[in-house]
Design a protein that fits this description.
This protein has 286 residues and is α+β, with helices and mostly antiparallel strands. It has helices at 17-44, 59-138, 170-181, 199-208, 218-221, and strands spanning 186-187, 196-197, 226-228, 238-241, 249-255, 258-264, 268-273, 281-284. It is rod-shaped.
Amino acid sequence: MSHTALIPSHRKPRQSASKTALRAGVAGGVLSTIAVAGAAGPAQAEPVTQTIEMPTITAGLSTTVAASAEATQQVALDLETQANQDAAAATAAKAAKKAKAEAVRKAEAKKKAEAAAKAEAKAKAEAAERASRASRSTERTTLSAPSGSSSSSGSSVSTASAPASSSASGSAASVVSFVQMQVGDAYVSGGTGPNSWDCSGLVQAAFRTVGVDLPRVSQSQSTAGTQVGLGNLQPGDILYWGGAGSAYHVGVYVGGGQFVGAQNSSTGVVQKSLDYDPPSGAVRVL
């Protein structure tokens, strides 16, 4: 026995012819396919389109974005509303300031007008007072005692007749002239003119012509001025019959010992001597 008889051979086993032919056929087919593909590849190549998939926004993120947009819109609306309110407030403040300035201007104008009216009225009153004082200083009528006297308050009152002429001036002259112009008018209870009078209505209207507003009734007119004695009468003095404050009749002394009064429905407005109906007292307003 050879010394190499037990050593296995390293030679590969021979393959059968069938397997070899099969393998050669497969290899040839593959190589043919590759060769065909290689030859046709450059001419038949088509562009490769690659599709990239974008991430999809989840429902939660969409809701958040919508809420943010809505909040931004609300802020814009709020800012616009605030701007409109600020503009309206500025306009209202401007209008209020203008109205206040106008009101102040009107108030000042009214105040100046009232002051001017008061000054004019005061000037007229002073002029009337000066005229009245001048009249009083130039005329002093003294009445002598008549054969009879009348006294409703316990003291005798002297009356006398005198010339019918009057030397009144100023406001007193205006009062005297007014009542004398009404002589012959009718007497009507409650009458205030222009063609019918009662006693106090005639006196009130006469003094109103010189800016003196007397009370309406005889009782109040008998205390409307300064009480004077019947021996010191001046034209324009108010004569009253009855007590001071409770007089039932009034008239106007026109000078010369005479008076004018709306006596009654039978006589109407007359000018008579004090002897005709001696008064109880007199008050001086002018």
